[in-house]
Design goal:
213 residues; alpha/beta; D-Maltodextrin-Binding Protein, domain 2; six-stranded mixed beta sheet; five-stranded mixed beta sheet; 11 strands; 31% strand; binds 1-O-pyrophosphono-5-O-phosphono-alpha-D-ribofuranose
Length: 213
Amino acid sequence: MKDGLRIALPKGRLGKKACDILSKIGYGCDEMLEESRKLVFYDQEKGNTYFLVKPSDVATYVEYGAADIGFVGRDILLENRSDVFELCDLGIGKCRICVAGERDFPYHEKKHLKVATIFPNISRDFFLSTGKTVDIISLHGSIEIAPLVKLSDVIVDIVETGATLKENNLTVLEEIFAISARYIANKVSYTYKNREICKIHELLEKVRGEGND
Ligand code: PRP
């Protein structure tokens, strides 16, 4: 078995886009595209190993050196305060982190808010900067329900098409920032496997913006 790169990829919608980009630059792994429950894939030709992990765990695998490189949403890097090298913007997985709530909620008048979110750190930092005080309620998904059942006043969540908010009678009250997926590297691997990591970086820069999203 060759000692190639260990690459952490997110499962789900971002993962599919990441696989397409890797194929474009000659780092594809066809077996990953097949429907299965398999999570680790080995590419005999290049000697690289691919891990399919939960999107929110990609940066952890890379930070601790279990993976040399990874593709991850910037929201995860900011929320986890990950200690990794962020090498480039992949131009995929573009969305926004927003404060959202019911249309008639007097958001701008409120000095104190109950906020449900999967991003407690991002939310706390943001509201601190606006001067509002907050109670953070951490959830793991389907956050849109929280204001509807009065668990919270507002939510801080990802908005991509806006369809989930619309279908749950919620609206964006304020945008926090735009995010997209990043190519990241472990800091030690970046030194020891520099040639291969930088080669992928160059190839990624070349295909960026070629309608990958
Ligand atoms: C994310 C996010 C929103 C939705 C936004 O959820 O948390 O619910 O996508 O996308 P839209 O603006 O295109 O509707 P995801 O599908 O990842 O699942 P989750 O609710 O379990 O987190």
